Every structure is written in C-alpha cells, then in structure tokens.
Amino acid sequence: MIRLTDSMSSHCYVLHKVNGTAMLDNINKIVLKNLFPRKKLSAYDAISEAQKIAYAPLIFQAVRTMRDLGILAQLEKAKDNGVTPGGIADALDISLYGVETLLESGLSCGVVEMADDGDSFVLSKVGYFLLHDPMTRINMDYNHYICYLGMYNLDEAIKTQKPAGLRVFGKKWATLYQALPHLPDTIKNSWYAFDHFYSDSAYPDVLPIIFKNQPGTMLDIGANVGKFSILAAQYDQNIQITMVDLHDQLQNAIKNVNDEALDQRIHSLMLDLLDEKSTFPKEMDVYWLSQLLSCFGKDEIISILMRIVDVMGENSTVYILETCWDRQQHESAAYSLINTSLYFTAMASGNSKMYHSKDLIACCETAGLRLINIFDHLGICHTLFECKKNNS
Ligand SMILES: C[S@@+](CC[C@H](N)C(=O)[O-])C[C@H]1O[C@@H](n2cnc3c(N)ncnc32)[C@H](O)[C@@H]1O
C-alpha cells in the first residue's frame, strides 16, 4: 500500500513495503512524469538538432568568452537600439574581427539578435539569463573550469572506469576529492560554488524534517566545508555533530567550525570511505549523507551503507539527500543533472553519477535499510530518503 500525503511544504510519500520491486514500480508510476518523451521530428529538424550538438563545445566557449570579455554586458547596456560590432570593439578594446566572430556565433545560437537597423546587435532573453542568472553562471563556470579540458578524455574514462580527465590538473590523483583542496583558487571556487549552490538551497527544507524527533547526535558524512554541520548546530543548540571527510578536505571544515565558535559541539573524524575496513561511530541518532552517494559507484554505495547499517541502533535514522534526475519537475533540471554525470565519469571518480532514484533505493535495500519516507522537491532539485535499519 502506498499513501500519499503533503507535508512540510514538500511532497511526502509514505511507503508501506509489500514486496520490493513492485513497490518501486508503483512509486514511479504515481510520482514521476516522463521528462523525455519520444519526439516525432522531421528529418530536416533532426539534422539541424544534430548540428547543434556537433558544434556545442565551440558555442559554449564563444558564449562564455562573450560573457567574460564583457560583450554581453555591452549589449545589455545598449538596450533595444543595440550596438554595432565596432561600438563594442572600441568600448572593450578588442579587435573588430574578434567581436564580429563572437557576435555571429551568438546570433546562430540565439544569445544575441539583430536590431531593427540590420547593423546593430541586441541581447536576447537567453543572453540575459546567461549574464544574470546565478545558476546559469555557476553551471557555466563549473563546466569551464572543472570539466572542459578533461572532457576530452571521456572515452578513456568510460572504457577504464577511471576519471581520465583528472590528469589535466597535473598530479596523479585517485579522485577529484583528493585533488580539490589543492587546486588553484579559480578552479576550486567554481567547484565549491557549484556544489553548494544546490545543497544550500535544500538545507532549510531538510532541517525541520531531520530535527522533528529531536536527535542528540549526528554524523555528517562527506561534510565538505562544514556548511550543513554549522547550520544544524545553529538550528538546534543541543545537537552534537561529527563531520566525516578526507583529511585535507576536513581542514577547511574544521577552520570554518572554529570561526563560528562551534568546536564544542562539532567534532571531526578523518576517514576514507573507500577503505572498506573503515567503520563509523555507533548508534548515532542521525547519519546524514548529503550529495555524497553520487560520488561513488553502486558497489561502493552499498559498502558505505552496509557499514552504516552495522553500527545503527534502534533509534538511528539515515537521511540521504540526493539530486535524482528522474524526480525532477522540469526537463531542464533533469537535463542538467544527467549531464553532470559526465563530470563524475571523466573528472571525479570514473564510476559515479547522478542516479535514478530506483538505483539508490535498490542500493539502500541491498545494504539492509528500510525506506520509510521520500520527500521530493526540496530546495532547487533535491530528494530526501529517510531510512531505518531493516530488522526483518
Ligand atoms: C559532493 S560533496 C558533498 C558535500 C556536502 N555534503 C554537501 O551537501 O554539499 C562530497 C563530499 O564527500 C567527500 N568525499 C568524497 N570521497 C570521499 C572519500 N573517499 N572519503 C571521505 N569523504 C569523501 C568529499 O571530500 C566531499 O566533501
């Protein structure tokens, strides 16, 4: 039986397990819509779409260059009358050749349009969002600084299941997470901005859910810079939190906790989750995994969850916050998440991705967890899975 209720401004689906797979099929039928229906295109439209894909990397760089050199801003300043390529070249001290070349590329992809005089260019609505929308800017910076160069090695990454693109950052790192604290600021900051733009948006929605049963202890696994631990400690004065992460990553988190004078209630534990011998502290009230499981392959996820199940007590709850592409309301959100998987393949680990919720639920069940709630549409694009130890 599946009971649907509305709760805490999000959608809460309370699940009563009858038999595993049938239950998941039912959930998907009820909750999810087909974000990518089959399309009947003419051959003309199909070959046109194919050219957009064939030129996508070049157009991406042309538009980013127009944004970063100030060309989009010049177009916006000129409003509806527009500005000529020469006007932009003079204002920005860039060659007329360069400005014309970029504007023509922008015209072809709908970022700029011709003004009524036929000589000047104006910023389109798409261009406006490329210039001003924070999410678009963060996605573009992340794709440029973190992903672009390494994506060249995607085929090698697919074949070897190793993050073959990571070598563009110099030293031979096992995964991006070892590399991250050591990368140049521009690159590193684009990653942090991307990661936290999304998870930050969900934190205010999840705090009331996690604290509804007044937990006393929490393990924040994959704490990163400590943002959630700090928010949680500020939300509830009684909670004791332990942050878990790789050694170098934890140093930032510890500093941030100290800056907030929360070191009496937020502690740290260095641990490599890929070490199957590593164990977690016992009987915490909450085991919190936010945007963590997407960093690992399915076998690794099951291993991490099994090690959590091993130490859970009767009152322990596991909360998994993830961005599942199948649970999105908008095609563009699913599009962005699905393509973020390519970052995980080429740059991050070679075997991780933005999972379909069915895959995550299956990992939870295999590991010995019982799913009791799913909360959808938290923050920009998150789903929260609430799980207990399966004693049956
Ligand atoms: C995508 S971030 C999520 C950060 C944060 N929880 C959030 O909600 O934004 C994943 C975190 O997992 C950590 N991590 C990745 N691989 C790890 C490993 N093998 N052992 C321990 N931590 C790891 C990373 O360092 C990073 O802080």
Question: What characteristics describe this protein?
Answer:
Arc Repressor Mutant, subunit A, 9-stranded mixed sheet, alpha/beta, binds S-adenosylmethionine, 48% helix, 392 residues, Rossmann fold, elongated, disordered N terminus
- Total beta-strand segments: 11
The whole-number mean of residue pLDDT values reads: 93
Annotation field: number of helices: 16
CATH class of the largest domain: Alpha Beta
CATH fold group of the largest domain: Rossmann fold
Integer count of domains: 2
CATH-scheme architecture of the largest domain: 3-Layer(aba) Sandwich
- Unreliable segments (pLDDT under 50, ≥5 consecutive)? 1-30
Q: Numbering strands along the chain, what is their spatial order in the largest sheet?
A: 1-2-10-11-9-8-5-6-7
The best one-word shape is elongated
**What structural class results from the helix and strand content?**
alpha/beta
Hey, roughly how much beta strand do the residues contain? 15-25%
Q: For this structure, what is the CATH homologous superfamily of the largest domain?
A: Vaccinia Virus protein VP39
